[in-house]
Amino acid sequence: xxxxxxxxxxxxxxxxxxxxxxxxxxxxxxxxxxxxxxxxxxxxxxxxxxxxxxxxxxxxxxxxxxxxxxxxxxxxxxxxxxxxxxxxxxxxxxxxxxxxxxxxxxxxxxxxxxxxxxxxxxxxxxxxxxxxxxxxxxxxxxxxxxxxxxxxxxxxxxxxxxxxx
Length: 165
Description:
This protein is of the alpha+beta class. The chain has two domains: 1-34, no CATH class; 57-144, 2-Layer Sandwich (Translation Initiation Factor IF3), CATH 3.30.110. Helices cover 36% and strands 25% of the residues. It has four helices and nine strands. It has helices at residues 3-13, 34-51, 68-83, 102-115; strands spanning 16-21, 28-32, 57-62, 87-93, 120-122, 127-129, 132-139, 143-144, 150-151. The strands form three sheets. Strands 3, 4, 5, 6 and 7 form a five-stranded mixed beta sheet that branches.
């Protein structure tokens, strides 16, 4: 139908004429209520936005002489962050003369990374930046149990190797 006739017909119905596919031969147009169409699009975008998860980087700060209890407490926080799908940045801060013992900070970060291998993978070795050493951990995929349930708490099953009798 000619454009002028389609436009007249859409106005009679109280609708707008919207071009759907301008590159087609002949161009395809649709008679719709454009305001309502925009409202529906906005609503769909809002619903899609609700369901998406924004990955954040959670930072945990340590000192080279961090006690075992404090270390375990922060490690549990890191596990929770990784299970939620966030990345974790562990930072060891050196103050004063502690900078002479960067090896202690490196060992602490490597231990931290090793303790969390079931929940997150390291993005590289510990790095020094000024008076801080840091390591970045990214979450591993969730483990799916039989029946379709997702278990975030259980670490992946490991092969125990040959059984010794």
